[in-house]
Amino acid sequence: MSTADAPTIGLAYDDDGSGPPLVFLHGGWLSAESWDPQRERFGEEYRIVTPDLRGHGRTGPSEARRYSIGLLTEDLDALLSELEVDEAVICGLSLGSMVAQSYAARHPERVRGLLLAGAVQTFPPVSIPGPMKRLLTPLPMLASSLSFTGSRTTFRSLLSTIRPLNGGPWLAHDPEVRAVALETVDRMPEDEFKKVFAALYRFRPPELDGLSVPARVVYGEHEVSPVKRQSADLARALGCDVYEIRDAAHLVNRDNPEAFDEVLSGLLDEVEG
């Protein structure tokens, strides 16, 4: 593990292997470790870069009082510039998919391919008019919950609000994958949890209709229907196919890594071809 001396913040990251760069961006409140199956699968053929985003994992807290997807995108751009990665295939899950969308919109010349998993255009993934969304913001209630119960219990409460949308466990289909994710969330400081949530909630999707790169959109069979709908919308905007992975939920790359890797392999073949 190395640490980039980036202008905005020093991001902890892993940079392994050689070959065409392949960048993986983890989901909210998780860490770069969530991409370990893909690092193992593609590490012999590609240069794999897996950062811990601001506020997450080994990178840890920052002094910024407010986070945004734009800020996380600037962090990524600074890191890739530091590593002299001029162009790469970018894979993002959930929060990472938002950063990947933003990065592709801002720096299309630096993106060779794009894979968006568990991807959304808004958080929550339902259409709420801007003024109404600001009025109904859950941030004060979230801050109160974090103060009294901590990150893990607050995250479980968020999961309980999603359960009715699909009738079962949503985060992960595999109980072991779910347990590891909850342990990772539990290590995040309450203030960082709140700043990450706010960045998700305030995200405004970029315009991707003009982006012309090989792309794939992926979600799990047990993903909630609003995420599936927004993923389909993203696929139409990108002019690409959308893939539903069986025996998988939101953490699709961990629930069924073999099927996920097959989709990614197809994208990489198209890029290299």
Percent of residues in beta strands?
15-25%
CATH fold-level assignment:
Rossmann fold
Total tally of structural domains: 1
Rg over CA atoms, rounded to whole Å, is 17 Å
Helix-residue proportion = 40-55%
Strand order of the largest sheet: 1-2-4-3-5-6-7-8
- Major β-sheet, in short? 8 strands, mixed
What form results from the Cα inertia axes?
A: globular
**Topology as a string of helices (H) and strands (E):** EEEHEHEHEHHHHEHEHH
Record field, number of beta strands: 8
Please give the CATH class.
Answer: Alpha Beta
CATH architecture: 3-Layer(aba) Sandwich
Secondary-structure class: alpha/beta
Termini separation (Å)?
31 Å
Q: How many alpha or pi helices?
A: 10
Low-confidence stretches: 1-8
Superfamily (CATH H level) name: Alpha/Beta hydrolase fold, catalytic domain
Oligomeric state of shown chains: single chain
